[in-house]
Amino acid sequence: MLKFWLNRAYVSAAFLIVVAIGSYAGTIPTVPVLDSLIADSGWKYTLYWNASAGASSYALQTSTDYYFATTLFSQTGITGTSLTLTDSAKDTVIKYNWNNGYCYWRMNAANIYGVSEWSSVDSSFGAYGMCNWVGGVYGPSPGNAATNVSLPVTFGWDGPELQCSVPVPSPFFILQVSTDTGFSSLVIENISIYGTLEGASGFEEFFRYFYSTGYLNNSTTYYWRLRVGGGPWLDTFKFTTGGTSVLPVDGKLSKTDFTASNKMISYSLATPGPVEITFSDVLGRTAFVVNRKQSVGRYSIELKNCNLASGHYIVSFKAAGVEKQASVVITR
Question: Is domain 135-247 in CATH 1.10.530.10, yes or no?
Answer without folding.
Answer: no
